[in-house]
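Fold Annotation — chain and its backbone
Encoding — discrete vocabulary of local shapes
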Amino acid sequence: MKNIEDLLTTNAFKPIKYFQLNNTFLIGVYQGSFSKYDILIKYRQNKPDGKWTRLRTPKHIHWAVDLLIKMSHYEKLTKEFLDYLIEIWEATKPNKNEIERMKALSIESFLEENKEYILNFEKLNTKGSYSIKFLLTLAKLLMQQEKNNLESAYFFKNLLIGLKDGKDIYKIVYIATHNRR
């Protein structure tokens, strides 16, 4: 098997940071084009046959649907997870320099600091396609991306609140797929 960096590198993209979650996901963080500290997130998923998917850019609609599935089975626990994500959103600040950016991209430390929360929400792993560890990681990176590009951004938080408040599916899909760039 190729090494992780090779699996996340293409002619157009070379990761500035990368990591593996379990044996299921490889996540690459790349230099974005919207601001000096913009990041672009891409991932590959290991399929049951052992082959990796193509390099994908995560879409908000994918994880939003996954949370809706989890919520249909474990509403209270999923809403607690959404509350936790909103807390992380509130604590996320834009990067002002490269040191801050690399610290924000220290996902290993972030996951270690949040190990207890991941364990509290493990039951949610039984429904949907994504693990809580993957959703938490993806959410943190997407929040950082949004805040780096516009400190007063609110899109991600609006989606979290919409999910938590049980907005109808059409509203959730609209929020998650509305073109922000």
Observations:
- The radius of gyration is 16 Å.
- The chain has a mean pLDDT of 90.
- Residues 4-177 form one domain.
